[in-house]
Amino acid sequence: MLRADAISYGSVALKPSRFPGLALDAAEVHLWQASLDGRPADIFESFLSADELDRANRFHFTEDRTHFVVARGLLRNLLAAYLGIGCAELRFSYGAKGKPFLLLDGRPQINFNLSHAHGRAAFAFSRGRELGVDLEYVKEDFEAELIANRFFSRSEVLALRTVPADLRNQAFFNCWTRKEAYIKARGEGLSMPLVEFDVSLRPGEPAALLNNYREKREVERWSMKAIPAPEDYVGALVVEGHDWQLKSFSLEKSNAPKLSANVAALERHQHSRLSLG
Ligand SMILES: CC(C)(COP(=O)(O)OP(=O)(O)OC[C@H]1O[C@@H](n2cnc3c(N)ncnc32)[C@H](O)[C@@H]1OP(=O)(O)O)[C@@H](O)C(=O)NCCC(=O)NCCS
């Protein structure tokens, strides 16, 4: 049995006996965040399938390769924990625009999505609700208005202009992450025209899908939240339906050595489960 002492649930220490696996209620959405730096890529590599390793080896920069490997390794560990199976039993397939999903052989459905940015990753999980998550690193020095004119809808561009200059960067990334999380929830990637829907963006206002000009009922179908993120990062989550609660977890970087020991233990026990320790 793998004991993931490294995983903390907020600041609460959890006893392994209470968590034989990770429980995910249908009325919950779980969000995990992790730093991807300082993790042992070689150990995470051992969880990846041949096609994932192939992809990893196509990255030009070592850092990008490591981030991909660690994010996929963590994703596999978390999914295995929710399903109570070994990482090697997980089979991914991909939607027409690349959204990964699990081939589950009759097991209860689990939906997930992930995002990585500047050495961090966010992973979202639900039972039976489509979802999309996006995390971005807030850059300071870039042509926000130029990019907004290119990617945002007319009303978003106008809304952005009304935001005081010192908050405009924050507003820009609110908009960007919310749009991105929405197209990821739908699985469409950039094949969906970004000007066909509006999201809220003003700092202090709740995250919301305000309009979808082509499919009006979409506004009712999805809920949108800003996710808690460290300073210099902004994130958004879009989930099907409204009757769910968010639970946030973190995979603390400071515990990386313990996690790697645990991950190595998992390798030796093909059917072991990840439990919260
Ligand atoms: C591919 C895309 C879905 C996300 O790209 P991104 O923001 O660069 O990357 P993220 O880190 O947030 O997400 C990547 C992860 O999303 C998942 N993903 C891939 N295609 C997906 C799709 N069609 N739908 C949902 N999730 C998808 C994958 O798990 C991927 O990570 P992995 O391949 O390492 O496992 C797509 O939206 C894109 O190319 N965006 C480019 C950015 C842009 O121009 N955005 C405009 C916003 S206004």
Inertia-based shape: globular
CATH class category name of the largest domain: Alpha Beta
The tally of structural domains comes to: 2
Q: What is the fold-level CATH name, i.e. the topology of the largest domain?
A: Ribosomal Protein L22, Chain A
How many helix segments?
8
- In terms of DSSP E residues, the strand content is 25-35%
What's the overall average pLDDT, rounded? 85
The fourth-level CATH homologous superfamily of the largest domain is: 4'-phosphopantetheinyl transferase domain
Helix/sheet category: alpha+beta
Helix content: 25-40%
SSE ordering: EEEHHHEEEEEHHHEEHEEEHE
Low-confidence stretches: 1-20, 255-277
What does this structure look like?
This protein is α+β, with helices and mostly antiparallel strands and 277 residues long. It has 2 domains: 2-129 and 244-276, 4'-phosphopantetheinyl transferase domain (Ribosomal Protein L22, Chain A), CATH 3.90.470.20; 135-240, Alpha-Beta Complex (Ribosomal Protein L22, Chain A), CATH 3.90.470. The protein is 31% helix and 26% strand. It has 8 helices and 14 strands. The chain has helices spanning 41-45, 50-56, 62-83, 144-151, 154-161, 168-186, 218-221, 256-268, and strands spanning 2-4, 7-8, 28-35, 91-94, 100-103, 111-117, 120-126, 131-137, 197-199, 209-212, 222-227, 233-240, 245-251, 274-276. The strands form 5 sheets. The protein has a 5-stranded mixed β-sheet, covered by helices on one side. The protein has a 3-stranded antiparallel β-sheet with strand order 8-12-11. A two-stranded parallel ribbon has the order 1-14. A hairpin with a 5-residue loop joins strand 11 and strand 12 (233-240). The longest helix has 22 residues, at 62-83. The radius of gyration is 19 Å and the shape is globular. The model is unreliable at 1-20 and 255-277 (pLDDT under 50). Residues 68, 71-72, 97-100, 113-116, 132, 134, 151, 176, 179-180, 183-184, 187, 189-190, 194 line the site of coenzyme A.
